[in-house]
Design goal:
137 residues; alpha/beta; 5 strands; 15% strand; rod-shaped
Length: 137
């Protein structure tokens, strides 16, 4: 006796294809991993608020960093150890001192960040950044 085999018709799949969803989630995760360190690496600088109160001011001091990382205070070379003393002396002489900082575009960011941290620790409140051209001292 031969048995009759009953063939069943294929049923439609009711599951959702989640492969594209996983791909999108991985791309978003990679973007978050790449952008978070950029957003968290910063140095807080208090910027002035409101209009200027004193129209007549002394000329600002210039602090420059060249492409090799050397410091220049008002176009004269200065060492890292002497910088905090110069900043303190300038603030004693002029309490409302303005400091303009200029960095060569080829200087390392770490060097710039270190010098900026020294300036901030010294209590300079009026700080400006100049240009993005190579230094010609």
């Amino acid at each position: 006796m031969a048995k009759a085999i009953a063939l069943r018709e294929p049923e439609p799949m009711s599951a959702i294809n989640i492969t594209p969803l996983i791909d999108v989630m991985l791309v978003l995760l990679i973007m978050m991993i790449l952008t978070i360190p950029i957003a968290t690496h910063k140095i807080a600088v208090d910027l002035p608020q409101g209009p200027a109160t004193n129209p007549v001011e002394a000329p600002p001091h210039q602090l420059a960093i060249d492409n090799s990382g050397r410091l220049f205070w008002d176009a004269a070379p200065v060492s890292d150890a002497a910088l905090p003393g110069l900043l303190a002396q300038a603030q004693r002489d002029q309490p409302d001192m303005v400091l303009h900082m200029r960095t060569d575009p080829d200087a390392s960011y770490d060097r710039f960040a270190h010098v900026l941290a020294v300036v901030k620790r010294s209590g300079v409140t009026r700080l400006g950044f100049q240009g993005n051209r190579p230094l010609a001292l």
